[in-house]
Amino acid sequence: MVLQTLDIVKNEIPIEEESVVISEDTNAGLVLVDIINGFCTVGAGNLAPREANRQISQMIDESARLARVFCDNKWPLLAFLDSHHPDRLEHPYPPHCISGTDESNLVPALRWLEKEPNVIIRRKDCYDGYIGSFQEDGSNVFVDWVKKNNIQVLLVIGICTDICVLDFVCSTLSAKTRGLLAPLEEVVVYSRGCATFDFPASMAKDVLAHPQELMHHVGLYMAKGRGAKIAREVSIGAVKNA
């Protein structure tokens, strides 16, 4: 039934995905959204997968690949880590990714990023990394990062496609429209570098159902509708002449 529904949705709201080449002379920045144990490592918490998950595993592999390319080239990378105070939980979800626990740390395949000089780690206590980047003095870590590095193309990957990734992308595109993120020109969401959680209707009781493939597609569709480019593959190198 879920597969039939997914086919109907993909037919009614198709997504045009592109092959994206980020040229070496483009000022590109990579944003990782919440690729942490509490969302990705089997059994790590209330919102972690209960068993190995193909979509999440693929996201981790692709994020590690792209992160390595960016770090080898000393290009800017910003990683958002969901991190909540135990007294300020995130409705309607159960307690998750509590500050100071391993749930709120990068997955093992990405822990090496913590020692890379081109990487900024930003812990956030809300869905939206843009909002979560505001400091007490009113400055914004993400905005300052974009401007300091003169980022023209922003590549976004992470989890969940339809929640934290989408919220961040929408806020970023709105800020770009308002002229708050110059010189940013383009936001790219890499579909294979994103994932979401799987909570089919058969398991839903007191929470909303959340079928993985369906909601992943919807998240990508909504991001494209806001103005993001959706990439089916991402490579780095010189752009070939037509």
TrEMBL record:
Listed Gene3D superfamilies: Isochorismatase-like (3.40.50.850)
Sequence ranges assigned to domain Isochorismatase-like in this UniProt record: 30-199
UniProt family annotation: Belongs to the isochorismatase family.
PANTHER family noted in UniProt: OS02G0606800 PROTEIN, PTHR47297
Name of the protein: Nicotinamidase 1-like isoform X2
Organism field: Coffea arabica
GN (gene name): LOC140004203
